[in-house]
């Protein structure tokens, strides 16, 4: 690791202990869930359950305290009551533990004198003992390379994205949602109250981290706004930085204080920081996932000219508004090209329009004709990106487009993409029942295998594409 901040020990511990394991419970409590996560994600070192009563859990010996662990110990996950944490820190310092991650809450986020006093005491003890802290009030670290994880269902493969998140729940959801869409992570860290390790130190570390190609973040407030500004500026100069800021409204700022015990800062200041640093701002976690999918799967387009292949006049109108409002262009196709496109399809088909967006109407299910149409469009030099809309709830015959038919239609788009270097996006939407969700996931996985980015709304695709293109426009100067 290069740079001034070295947190390698946080993401690559050689041994882990979990304080708060009970020999009488299953995987239904948080301490046991951490243990299951380490096992399922193939943590590559020894795991030591800790409980004063001792015993055994899932074939592992439970040690009364960290001091009783027979070997060296790098990383401790704390799931015990807040009042017992000072003693745990004393024992960790004596043992030579490098970092303690607090799932435990009940500190400054409570906005009580006792909570703030307790957090200050824990921090002082840790500093004196040379122990770094993550949290309190957080989920901790997911690092596939080492097998460290806070959820048992996370992928074991690494990827280029690192995500820092002040919220445990948002870290859990975004990681799952993005992983299902083909995003793989190098590092995820939920850091809660940021009593010690905070967003600034993490940004500085990830900026220099060769395993991180894209930095994503959810932040609510800042321990040191000036340092954060400088850290973001340096990070965005060398790699994409995508940030969702929580607490931008007055009510949201109040919620931030009760969530992580930090001040949220002014929305105007945040907007100014985004403009000055080159950060890619997002408003929702879904939007954040859209951006990550775009950066990972979409080749950089030469421009903003789109051709959209659609079904349904109303859907085409809505799509046009979304794309144009996002700053994208849907140019009218030349007359000769439109005549050529009509030649591939039945001209008396209901709803057919070869303007842009192209509304295939009843010809949407004409596999050979649709393929030739898209193949011709993608070869047209007047567009930079092809977007294919797969609507699953538009046919009056079916509550949801049958899986086999949806895949057959999608295969046309994939076949066209495999024969061109022009970027393509697929929007899968109109998910109206369980079957449609199952179909959408299957289709998304097929696109993922072909390295085509998938979005679950036209609006999401439009915003992500605009910000992706804008990022590269700025980089080109």
Provide a brief overview of the structure:
The protein is α/β, with parallel strands linked by helices. It has helices at residues 8-11, 30-40, 85-95, 113-129, 168-180, 199-208, 225-238, 250-260, 267-277, 285-297, 313-325, 335-342, 367-379, 403-418, 434-449, 458-476; strands at residues 16-19, 47-50, 55-57, 60-62, 75-78, 99-102, 132-134, 140-142, 161-165, 185-190, 214-219, 241-245, 280-282, 306-310, 358-359, 385-391, 424-429, 454-455.
Task: Describe the model.
The chain is an alpha/beta fold and 477 residues long. Helix content is 42%, strand content 16%. It contains 16 helices and 18 strands. The protein has helices at residues 8-11, 30-40, 85-95, 113-129, 168-180, 199-208, 225-238, 250-260, 267-277, 285-297, 313-325, 335-342, 367-379, 403-418, 434-449, 458-476, and strands at residues 16-19, 47-50, 55-57, 60-62, 75-78, 99-102, 132-134, 140-142, 161-165, 185-190, 214-219, 241-245, 280-282, 306-310, 358-359, 385-391, 424-429, 454-455. The strands form four sheets. Strands 8-10-9-11-12-13 form a six-stranded mixed sheet, with helices on both faces. The protein is elongated and about 80 Å long. The two termini are 30 Å apart. 50% of the residues are buried. The model is unreliable at 255-259 (pLDDT under 50).
Can you lay out the helices and strands and say which pair or pack?
Layout: H1 8-11, E1 16-19, H2 30-40, E2 47-50, E3 55-57, E4 60-62, E5 75-78, H3 85-95, E6 99-102, H4 113-129, E7 132-134, E8 140-142, E9 161-165, H5 168-180, E10 185-190, H6 199-208, E11 214-219, H7 225-238, E12 241-245, H8 250-260, H9 267-277, E13 280-282, H10 285-297, E14 306-310, H11 313-325, H12 335-342, E15 358-359, H13 367-379, E16 385-391, H14 403-418, E17 424-429, H15 434-449, E18 454-455, H16 458-476
